[in-house]
Design goal:
The protein is α+β, with helices and mostly antiparallel strands. The chain folds into three domains: 34 residues; 206 residues, Lipoprotein localisation LolA/LolB/LppX (outer membrane lipoprotein receptor (LolB), chain A, Clam), CATH 2.50.20; 113 residues, 3-Layer(aba) Sandwich (Protein Transport Mog1p, Chain A), CATH 3.40.1000. Helices cover 26% and strands 35% of the residues. Strands 7-8-9-10-11-1-2-3-4-5-6-12 form a twelve-stranded mixed sheet. An eight-stranded antiparallel sheet has the order 13-14-15-16-20-19-18-17. The longest helix is centred in the N-terminal third of the chain and has 33 residues. The chain starts with a helix and ends with a helix. This is Sigma E regulatory protein, MucB/RseB.
């Protein structure tokens, strides 16, 4: 009995140690975030330039992205839906834009994305399956795109100086981070503001918060919890399919591109909802992209199966707006509308307002030619 009691006390002590470690791991980021952050007199334009110039800065770390964008993309693109509507934990090793690795960690397993000079490998550990994706002008968002560093560069890439302002400083990942706010100038913008928190010495964005119109909580919040400013070894980011694994071609982006090739395109105008059309190299003529920076509207034909899923989602959503212009839905700063002319369904979507979607749809139906 004494031995059993001793073993019981030993087990209790071990569990006490485990619980203590968990408490420390959970509490440490909160404590670090509560420490005062040192601000610096860096102009907003200079801070944005530092972010845009940080793509080649090497680092490794642990990041978490939390999204509230429940996109109604159907069963064809589940990974895209998960990326923006769920909490995504990512371990990253970054040597450069063409040499990095991002592992997504979840209760279901682990999936790694490895980028090299000619394409990407996606490795599903539990299924022992590797998918090779070619470099194309049209690709769907992937985990590396929602890292604070990558997302900040994308969102700030076309910002005017007049749209930028400084907003103080805060602690992120145990580091002082300078605040930068982007407020888009376009009337059609579905994004109210983007707050970026920047490590001033490296120019790396440590946290990005994207707010929709009238929202007091971010629709997307991606941040580092841990960051090491050292270049990872090349062996960490490199990938070769293990012997015995399954290898396939990644074709997720083809869902939209194939529809664009098969469906007779509507001639698209040079401007929609006050947004100028921009060139999308490599895309079929039936796909159009309008706007700049964080205010973007896409027009694309969709396959019948995906159109049915979108139609059902719009019909069932209590938040959808239904009027003479058609049914449309806003999820945070992202708006979506299905237009079904006689030659095939099109989807209008982007970071624009519902009024902008209605205007664009009416413009397409009344005068589709440039």
């Amino acid at each position: 009995m004494a031995g059993m009691a001793a073993r019981g006390h030993g087990a209790a002590r071990r569990w006490a140690v485990v619980v203590a470690l968990v408490v420390v791991l959970v509490a440490t980021p909160l404590v670090l975030r509560a420490l005062p952050a040192a601000d610096a007199d860096v102009p907003a334009a200079d801070l944005a330039a530092a972010v845009l110039g940080s793509a080649d800065v090497g680092f490794s770390g642990y990041a978490v992205s939390a999204g509230g964008l429940a996109l109604p993309v159907g069963d064809q693109l589940p990974s895209l839906a998960d990326l923006f509507s769920d909490r995504t934990a990512m371990r990253v090793w970054w040597r450069g834009p063409e040499d990095h690795r991002v592992d997504v960690l979840s209760g279901a397993g682990e999936t790694g994305t490895h980028r090299d000079a000619t394409g990407t490998w996606t490795w599903e550990y539990e299924r022992a399956t590797a998918a090779r994706g070619a470099l194309t002008p049209f690709t769907l968002p992937a985990p590396p795109d929602v890292l604070p560093t990558s997302l900040a560069r994308r969102l700030l890439s076309e910002a005017d100086d007049a749209e930028l302002a400084r907003i103080g400083a805060r602690r992120v990942a145990g580091r002082d981070a300078l605040g930068l706010r982007l407020v888009p100038a376009e009337d059609a913008a579905g994004v109210e503001r983007v707050d970026v928190w920047v490590e001033p010495d490296s120019g790396l964005a440590l946290q990005v918060e994207v707010y929709g119109k009238g929202a007091d909580r971010p629709a997307l919040d991606t941040r580092f919890l841990d960051l090491d400013l050292a270049v990872p070894a090349a062996a960490v980011t490199a990938f070769f399919p293990p012997v015995g694994s399954s290898v396939r071609q990644a074709r997720e982006a083809e869902v939209v591109l194939e529809a664009g090739r098969r469906i007779t395109p509507v001639p698209l105008p040079d401007e929609l909802a006050g947004l100028p059309r921009r060139q999308l190299e490599g895309a079929p003529p039936g796909i159009g992209l309008y706007g700049r920076g964080v205010t973007v509207l896409a027009v694309a034909p969709v396959p019948p199966g995906l159109a049915r899923g979108l139609r059902t989602a719009l019909d069932q959503s209590p938040d959808a707006v239904r009027d003479d212009a058609g049914a449309r839905l806003a999820v945070g700063p992202v708006a979506l509308m299905l237009v079904e002319p006689g030659h095939g369904p099109y989807v209008l979507t982007g970071t624009v307002t519902l009024d902008a979607l209605a205007a664009a749809a009416g413009q397409l139906q009344q005068d589709p030619a440039p």
